[in-house]
Amino acid sequence: MELIIAKFGGTSIGNGDKIRKAAQSVVNEYMKGNKVVVVLSAINKTTDDLIKIVDDSVDSNISDKQMAEILSMGEMTSVRVMSSVIESFGVKSEYIDPYCDNWPLITDNNLLEAKIDFPASEAMSKHLMKILDQGVIPVVCGFLGKGPNDEITTLGRGGSDITAFLLGHCLNAAEVIIVTDVDGVMSTDPNKIQKAKKLDKISVEEMRDLATHGAQVLHPHALKYKDPLISVKIISHENGDLSNPGTVIVGPYEGEMMKTTMLYPEPISVVAIVGDGMLKRAGLLSKLTTILAKNDINIFGISAGQNSVTVFVNKKDAQDAYHLLHDMVIDCNELSSLSLGKEIAMLTLVSPDFIETPGIISEITDPLRDNNINIVEISSSQTAVVIFIDWEDGNKAFELVKSVIE
Predict the structure, then answer these.
(1) Cβ count within 10 A of residue 107
(2) Which of the 8 DSSP states describes residue 34?
(3) Burial 33-70, CB ≥16 within 10 A → b, else e
(4) d(CA 279, CA 346)
(5) DSSP three-state, residue 358
(6) Is CATH 3.20.20.20 the classification given to domain 3-250?
(7) Structure confidence by residue, pLDDT tens digits, 357-405
(8) Residues 46-64: tens digit of each pLDDT
């Protein structure tokens, strides 16, 4: 006998037929002798519809408490429907929502982006074991929590996945199954490339990076709650079978992506190439990077403008890069000239929170502006911001911006 946490996303229970198929898959596992805890998202698009109704009717004149209670209606409806369908198959079921005395997820009082209180949640989760031991299938609201004053809270994006992973940890489950609208993790979006293939397995860190950069299968925040001893897999609701292999997420979570601010210890040099026709020349960047790569010159950054390309290399390689790229300029009609700039410093800030922090660039650059530190170049991804500044300003800039992500 094993304990399984089965989390169904909104599209997996998007209509009556899907809900019935999901319930049947749960009952089938129960009939094998396994204990199953079901975690549900709101039925497909319910949360979006609720948000739109609020926006259209109340707009900003609504409190966080009111919003959390309204949003909770999606999950509270889905668990009641699912529990009823499971019982229609002749198996006892009980829905669990934040109004229940045995509600397992306890949080702080941040109503719309609540943080988990692990000790309290672990203690309350034990009540689910009593229900399971009675031969009952509990159906738990995903996404929702209960604050210190019994107020309803929400866990933010990826909340239902967090619920599933947390319950898996607290109940020492054998497996967490994420049921979604794809067969598993694909090599890329199958809606964009038909040749996309399902992966049999993927590491936790790879899954986190994929999710961080836009893959919709699993939210990256949820992965930090994954217990390394618990098997996790992602499967499609289409099969109606929780034993489907799907994609297994392997390996332990090595901890949250480190929030770091780094000042590269050596000076960087800038080589700027200009030319009116460079945007019309296919393969120009490839040629540039190939020339440097063949000569073992590492590129720390590269940016392309309307009539210029700027390359950042280590100062010790600057003269070699300068001469190599000059030869390229001479041989290419679309390029006119190049220059070797002064020494600059490279600051790198890394945080998984950047992806969901509006205005983060301003928070980083405002202190530099206020201290008259000029930014030579800036680039960003969903988890990192890289700033190039004058070398003599490097240490001061580092001290000014490092507190932004602490």
Answers:
(1) 24
(2) -
(3) ebbbbbbbbbbbebbeebeeebeeeeeeeeeeeebbbb
(4) 27
(5) coil
(6) no
(7) 778 889 899 999 999 999 998 988 767 889 999 999 999 999 999 887 7
(8) 988 998 999 889 877 899 9
Q: How far is it, in rounded angstroms, from Cα 8 to Cα 381?
A: 31
Between 95 and 382, whose confidence is greater?
95
Give me the amino acid identity at 363.
E
Position 212 confidence tier, pLDDT thresholds 50, 70, 90: low
**Cα–Cα distance between 380 and 281 in angstroms, integer?**
25
DSSP string, 123-174: HHHHHHHHHHHTT-EEEEESSEEE-TTS-EEE--TTHHHHHHHHHHHHTT-S
Terminal alpha carbon distance of the chain: 45
Tens digit of each residue's pLDDT (9 = 90 or more) over 161-186: 999 999 999 999 999 999 988 788 88
Amino acid code (one letter) for 259? K
CATH architecture of the domain 260-405 equals 2-Layer Sandwich (3.30)
- The conformation of residue 352, written as its DSSP 8-state character, comes to G
Residue keyed to tokens 């999606």 = 74
Enter the pTM of the model.
Answer: 0.71
Residue 67 CA to chain centroid, in angstroms? 23
How far apart, in whole angstroms, are the C-alpha atoms of residue 12 and residue 25? 12
116: which DSSP letter?
A: B
Location of each CATH 3.40.1160.10 domain in the chain = 3-250
Q: Give the model confidence (pLDDT) of 74-85 as tens digits.
A: 999 999 999 999
Continuous H helices in 12-108: 16-31, 46-57, 64-88
Residue 311 CB neighbour total at 10 angstroms: 25
β-strands 201-203, 247-250 pairing? parallel
Task: Give pLDDT tens digits for 341-351.
Answer: 889 999 998 87
Q: Which residue has the tokens 């997820």?
A: 105
